[in-house]
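User: quick one, fold this
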Amino acid sequence: GFIHVPGYTNSETRLLHFSRVMKDTQAGCPIVVEGDWTEKGGYQASCKLLDNPQRITAIFAGNDSMALGILKALDERGLKVPQDISVIGFDGIAPPLTTLQIDISTMANAAHMLLFYMFKKTNVNEMNVVVPIRLIDRGSTGPVPSK
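Assistant:
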């Protein structure tokens, strides 16, 4: 499952790449539900995923705050992480979570560069900045649980 926040470029990009990986690994089509970047939004979105008749084995949240809400929903349903279901966040701020951490320094430098070009009246709409990320495995992901 994937918790998506529509209207935000970073969420759209994460969903695009997530879907591509799912297809490339023949893991199937992700079930996508909407969230809102908050812990409460992650909780509500994960409840929708868990109520879906299709079995969910992992949930990817667009940020760590939503992933913390997922953990709360799973705990309330008696599901163990990662034995029953895996959870991964994005941002690198929540210690109990496996997460993808963005290089903040590189992102800040890229923002500075874009602002510089904007002040020079250069069209930055077509500029694409790729900022490296790294996977931090903190134990909230594991192998696909058996049925």
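User: anything notable?
Assistant: The longest strand covers residues 86-90.
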